[in-house]
Amino acid sequence: MKRFFWLIFLSTFAFSQSSKESAKTYLDQRQFKKAQQEMLTFLKSNPNDKEAIELLGDAYGHQEEWDEAIAQYKKLTEDEPNNANYHYKYGGALGMKALSVSKLKALGLIGDVKRSFLKAAELDPNHIDTRWALVELYISLPGIIGGSTSKALKYANELQALSEVDGYLAKGYVYEYDNEPELAEKYYKLAIKVGGSVTCYEKLTNFYEEQDEPDKAINTIETAHQKHQRNAMHYQIGKVCADYNIQLEKGEKCLKTYLANHSAKDGVPKAWAYYRLAQIYKHKKDKAEALKWIDKAIVGLPKIKVFQKEKTSISRL
Fold this sequence. Notes:
Blueprint: H1 2-28, H2 32-45, H3 50-62, H4 66-79, H5 84-100, H6 103-123, H7 128-140, H8 149-162, H9 164-177, H10 181-194, H11 198-210, H12 214-228, H13 232-244, H14 248-260, H15 270-283, H16 287-300, H17 305-315
């Protein structure tokens, strides 16, 4: 008899794990609706399974269904009030909802967002994502409702104690937002020196673009490419050249290299490279080539309005 019940237990456990693993796979594959349905079905017979509730919250969050995600994460914070990650996810979902509603409604959510992140930081002194969230929160909020550069830098310093590169990136972000470009550039460069990841180079590149310094942006991408050899960087160079009407020959060459070596892992669809080539040929006043490439872009992604707008602009040459 004991063996019979043990087999039932093992069978049920295996089913539970299989269902949750399926949901994780769906999330990894960005099939968020399937992950949602998998967990809704599973939770009907396992309503208190915390991992399943979290996975359901994640599925809702990826679909920007913030109220549903908030409800799941709130359950978790109530069941396990000392779990930092649950408070972090709850605060994050609240924060995203605040960005999607009116300013008046958002004001009513900010206090809960802040409390959730602060609780997560208190519970786990090593929680990097929470400290990033607090940096972004304090630097983006107006001072009248709790924004504070000094508090943002406090959490950037805590990040640096946990991860030097994250600390430098956070400080670059704070100083960029606070309109101190020299300090922002300094810390983004320090992040590259210490970490040197693709993300570090992207942050400095984006900073230069925001500062209207496209040549520096291109140089940064080229340096990154020498180290990381990512085909996607060819597209990024072509994009900057097309956007700023500079180094057009280089931009054309990079975009064509990107297309010749394109694969799904590059992230940016070919249609966007066609669009950038059309921009470059428009800058060169080559109407026929520009129309050829913008037509290819439209065929590739017919619903992108900016492609249609660009074709109208090219047709006026």
